[in-house]
Amino acid sequence: MDTEGSQSSLSSSTQDSPHDPCKMFIGGLSWQTTQEGLKEYFCKFGEVKECMVMRDPVTKRSRGFGFVTYVDQTGVDKVLAQNRHELDSKTVGTRFGIKR
């Protein structure tokens, strides 16, 4: 599975937890949404540690979802406090506490 985005190493203490409370699933992305656009939108809620748009390994076309990981829980809380998120003319959905 191809991803577009940055990768960061995990410390051994965070690898023990099955869920990352700072990692959010972002669904309903436009096929035109890039990693840069996703990060640009979500960085206004807090410092983004990692951001990726999932892509089809053969066509390299966006699969319509991605992940945003914040440095701390504050970013997640700010995203969840806003009821609606629109990116590239599409309303996107969010979930948090994603399994690693």
TrEMBL record:
One of its GO terms (cellular component) is cytoplasm. Residues 1-21 are annotated as: Disordered. Keywords: Repeat, RNA-binding. GO terms for biological process: central nervous system development; regulation of translation. SMART domains: RRM. GO terms for molecular function: mRNA binding. It comes from the Eukaryota. It holds the Pfam family RRM_1. Gene3D superfamilies: 3.30.70.330. Residues 22-100 form the RRM domain. Transmembrane segments: none annotated. The keyword RNA-binding applies. PROSITE patterns: RRM (PS50102). Residues 1-16 have a biased composition (Low complexity). PANTHER family: RNA-BINDING PROTEIN MUSASHI HOMOLOG 1, RNA-BINDING PROTEIN MUSASHI HOMOLOG RBP6. This is Musashi RNA binding protein 1a.
